[in-house]
Design a protein that fits this description.
The complex is a heterodimer of chains A (284) and B (317). By secondary structure, chain A is mainly α. Helices cover 71% and strands 0% of the residues of chain A. In chain A, helix 2 (21-39) crosses helix 12 (253-283), helix 5 (114-128) packs across helix 7 and helix 6 (134-143) crosses helix 7. Chain A is elongated and about 80 Å long. Chain B is an all-alpha fold and 317 residues long. Chain B has helices spanning 3-34, 39-43, 53-63, 69-81, 95-130, 133-148, 151-165, 177-207, 210-217, 222-259, 265-275, 278-306, 308-311. Chain B is flat and about 85 Å long. The chains are: A mainly alpha (284), B mainly alpha (317). Chains A and B meet through helix 1, helix 5, helix 6, helix 10 and helix 12 of A and helix 1, helix 6, helix 7, helix 8 and helix 10 of B. Chain A: Keywords: Cell membrane, Membrane, Transmembrane, Transmembrane helix, Transport. Chain A: One of its GO terms (cellular component) is plasma membrane. Chain A: InterPro entries: BP-dependent_transpt_permease (IPR050366), MetI-like (IPR000515), MetI-like_sf (IPR035906).
């Protein structure tokens, strides 16, 4: 939920500063890198990510091993590339779950009349009382740890935030002058809903999804880091961090580089989300 | 705003808070009982313990697990009202006592982090609004990066730099003040990034408002304008965000206390999650929900006091 208040602002048009052009280009370049790392990891991997070489264990970063090697002598950079797909898959799936549920709740509240609006509002209020990853931890204690539970848990925890934003958008658009005009012109309810309200109210979803993926990747890797999501030896960023934690005093590169990928992913989604939001705002 | 209206508002908020807490308790209660898995089995050490049927029956009777669900629910609400959060499955001690012993350390950590984050954010916002284009771009990049830093990563990097490489600060957080520095910084920096983004945007907006222009026309200096007028304007949304921020900090404490091996609510919660010690998890969640709800009410009151538009009734033009 960390970016919720900010993305709320970004969506509501009182836009946050639009990132400079250089930032946008860098973000797009990193997206291209992530796509290649997901689809064709071998292109970027100088070594086999699972090849064990005990003699090269704990080599610090060098021209031969950019990100150093781990306790079994595996190339950390190759493993970070290998982990891209798993980490992004969790982030994207969690965002999809959160958005789908948020859409459902938001639509019920924004279109379903006063009683439903009140009910969904209270449900949301209750869910907001589980801040951060607390709701996720509660779900995990009930269903047991693992990558699938972690993904669902992160998705569910983000849903109330999305629901609130989507409801706000629906209410805003429903009260706008062009919807009023369409009604006065005698267009039916269904047509007004499909042609005017939904397309305008749902435009920010691309922004929300973009911002949300970075957030979901962070939360999911936090759960993996705590040992509740993907487990080592899986090459997932959070799991790699968890595995490297044991060696933090002797081999910092085991934790620093997988974490760097998470940070870069979040920055990238934030920058792109804001660019999209600024474009959205300009189009209105 | 007249005092009676303030009181009425606070009373309404408190009623809302009681509703939220009741709903959280109900939701967690039924979630636990809808999930497959036998609590009696969990109390006796999980599925691997091979407890005898006799022992299971005894535990069920002791914990009231043989009663109908609604009776158990009523009993749970009754216990909650008297402040009893049940007994830990793993430790067999009262959850309330367990939480009572841990909560202070976590609240100290969260509140210190909130203060540090505010100081950093205000300093950055004041500096960046007076700086030129380059300064603003740098501040923007700093804020964005700070806000994107996950706690678990920032914590490990800080340990690697300040404990391992430089040896200035201990990697384990104990009662000593030096042990608090790294955990507080870990929690404060990402939050400061969020707050600073919000404040800078609001300050720049405020500086273009008529009240800022007229203050400048009265001869207010540029620094005074930012400090006395724009900052107050910018503080409002940041204050509103602080209620949420305390919840965010407590949830961040789960990670931070684990990395720095610092005793506290977050670490208790994580250990209970690993052991699937349901009463402890539910107890901690309820207490955090209580803190969250109280903080939201407090920030609501503070932001009303800080907002000149709500203190002078009808003062807006």
């Amino acid at each position: 939920m960390s970016d919720l208040e900010l993305s709320n602002r970004a969506v509501s048009g009182r836009a946050l500063p639009r990132p400079p052009r250089v930032g946008t280009m860098l973000a797009l370049a990193f997206v291209a890198y992530l796509i290649v790392a997901t689809a064709w990891p071998a292109v970027l991997q100088p070594y086999d990510p699972d090849a064990i070489a005990p003699r090269d264990a704990f080599d610090p970063p060098s021209p031969a091993h950019w990100f150093g090697t781990d306790e079994s002598g595996r190339d950390v950079y190759s493993r970070v590339v290998e982990g891209t797909a798993a980490s992004l898959l969790i982030g994207v799936s969690a965002t999809a779950i959160g958005l789908a549920l948020g859409l459902l709740l938001g639509a019920l509240a924004g279109l379903g009349g006063r009683v439903l609006d009140f009910a969904v509002g209270r449900v949301n209020e209750v869910l907001f009382a589980f801040p951060g990853i607390l709701l996720a931890l509660l779900i995990i204690v009930l269903w047991g740890p693992g990558p699938v539970t972690a993904t669902i848990a992160v998705g569910l925890s983000t849903a109330p935030g999305y629901a609130r934003i989507i409801r706000g958008e629906l209410v805003r658009v429903r009260g706008s002058s062009y919807v009023e005009a369409a009604r006065v012109l005698g267009h039916g309810r269904g047509r007004v809903l499909l042609r005017h309200i939904l397309p305008n109210a749902l435009a920010p979803i691309t922004v929300l999804a973009t911002l949300g993926i970075g957030q979901a990747v962070v939360w999911a890797s936090a759960l993996s880091y705590l040992g509740l999501g993907a487990q080592p030896p899986a090459a997932e960023w959070g799991a790699m961090l968890a595995a490297g934690r044991t060696y933090i005093t002797t081999a910092w590169w085991l934790t620093v580089f997988p974490g760097l990928m998470i940070v870069l992913t979040t920055i990238t989604t934030t920058v792109l989300g804001r660019v999209l939001a600024a474009r959205d705002g300009a189009a209105r | 705003m007249p005092r009676s209206r303030v009181l009425r508002r606070v009373a309404l908020r408190l009623a809302g808070a009681v509703f939220v807490l009741w709903a959280v308790a109900t939701l967690t209660f039924f979630a636990i009982h809808l999930v497959p898995g036998d609590p009696a089995q969990a109390i006796l050490g999980g599925p691997g313990s091979q407890a005898s049927q006799e022992a299971l029956d005894r535990v069920r009777a002791d914990y009231g697990l043989d009663q109908p669900l609604l009776v158990q629910y009523a009993a749970m609400l009754g216990r909650l009202l008297s402040g009893d959060l049940g007994d830990s499955y793993a430790l067999k001690t009262p959850v309330a006592g367990l939480i009572g012993g841990q909560i202070l350390g976590t609240l100290v950590l969260a509140l210190l982090a909130l203060v540090v984050a505010w100081v950093l954010a205000v300093a950055l916002a004041l500096w960046s609004t007076s700086a030129g284009r380059a300064g603003r771009a740098i501040a923007g990049g700093l804020e964005l990066t700070a806000a994107a830093l996950p706690h678990f990563w920032l914590a490990t990097v800080l340990i690697a730099v300040f404990s391992t490489a430089l040896g200035w600060l201990p990697p384990v957080s104990n009662d000593a003040a030096s042990g608090l520095v790294l955990p507080v910084v870990t929690l404060a920096v990402p939050l400061a990034g969020f707050l600073a983004q919000l404040m800078r945007e609001q300050m720049l907006q405020a500086l273009e408002e008529p009240f800022a222009v007229s203050a400048a026309a009265r001869g207010e200096t540029a620094a005074g304008l930012r400090f006395r007028h724009a900052l107050r304007h910018a503080a409002l949304p940041a204050i509103n965000l602080s209620g949420w921020a305390v919840g965010y900090l407590i949830s961040g404490a789960v990670v931070v206390e684990t990395v720095f091996a610092r005793p506290g609510l977050g670490r208790t919660l994580l250990r209970a999650t690993e052991l699937r010690d349901v009463p402890v998890v539910v107890g901690v969640v309820l207490v955090v929900a209580l803190v969250y709800v109280l903080m939201t009410i407090a920030t609501d009151v503070v932001s009303r006091l800080a907002d000149p538009r709500t203190t002078h009734s009808g003062g807006a033009t």
